Give the backbone structure.
Amino acid sequence: KAIRRQRQMCIRDREKVMYGIDKNKCISCGKCFSVCPQKCINIDLKKISENNCLRCGACFEICPQKAVTME
C-alpha cells in the first residue's frame, strides 16, 4: 500500500517531486539506470538529473537498497 500511495502522489504532484540518491546506500548496481526512460541517472556520480527526470518513480520502485529518495 505504501508504494501505491507514493506512486499516486508522484503522478498527482509530479512537478513537486524531487528524486535523489543516497550515496551511502547506493551499491551502483545500475537497476535504476536500466529502468529510467530518460537515462538521466549518472551511476558514477550517484546523481539524478532533475532537468531530464520525468518523475515516473521507476527508479524509486526498483532500487534494491532503497537508495533512491523522494522529497
Observations:
- The first helix runs from residue 2 to 12.
- Helices lie at 2-12, 31-35, 58-62.
- The longest strand covers residues 19-21.
